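job 3f2a | input accepted
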Amino acid sequence: MGCASQCAKYFLCFFNFVFFVTGGAALTVGIWLFADRNSFTNLIAKLDETDILTKTDADVIRMMSYILIIAGALTFIVSFLGYCGAMFESRCLLCVYGVLLLLVLVLECVVVGLAFGLKGDAEKGTQGFLKSTIKYYAPSADQTETVTVAWDGIMTQLHCCGVESYLDFHESTNWTSTNKVVPEACCMKEYGELKDRSCPLHPTSSNSYYQTGCYKAIVNAIEENAAIVIGVAAGLAFIEVLVIILALYLACVYWRPQHVYRCVEPSGKE
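job 3f2a | predicted structure (270 res):
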């Protein structure tokens, strides 16, 4: 086996070993969440000193566990095939691995194409989804804690309020039962405290972001980081193509004919 084949072999082994461990970790966490949600969320709360997961709805946690199990299992199996195929020089495993990665790459291209082709519908759907969730926003920690925590995080990080403006909170019956105009997450803060304590009751452009919609803020954040997103996507696609080529290249190198015919020159002797 030549130097190029050796380099390709060890690169595939290292690449797939990393994803094998990653997929195994995701699968383990998913199974743990599915089997015993409380112990996992309590452990995370102790490690990062937050209680976001402990307040998250059981249905959301269950959905997260399903996603982790499916994604982890697929990553685990595919990377296992690639690692074993390269390490044990199995042409069959490498071919299956290359075909599976090719299917993943094709599906990714289809998703990107649909995203661009259905951009208008996607924007309307996203706005509709955000407005449907904001109806469950609550002014205090209760049964809708997941929605409240998620919205507070978005508004705090992106400096926005509501989907299009603070008026969207009028859709929430939980919110309209209070005398506040905007949540505290819509207010400007200094050193973790409200810049103006009267902001929730009397929001202005100088103490809050009450007229800045979160949908517009999300779009602006994506556009500002478009180069990074495109670069990461292009990098992943390049690595996938490279790995597919290396897998098929090694499959050809490891190919051995079933029958070998030797040519013997006649010696002229009897």
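job 3f2a | Residues 134 and 151 are 8 Å apart (CA to CA).
job 3f2a | closed
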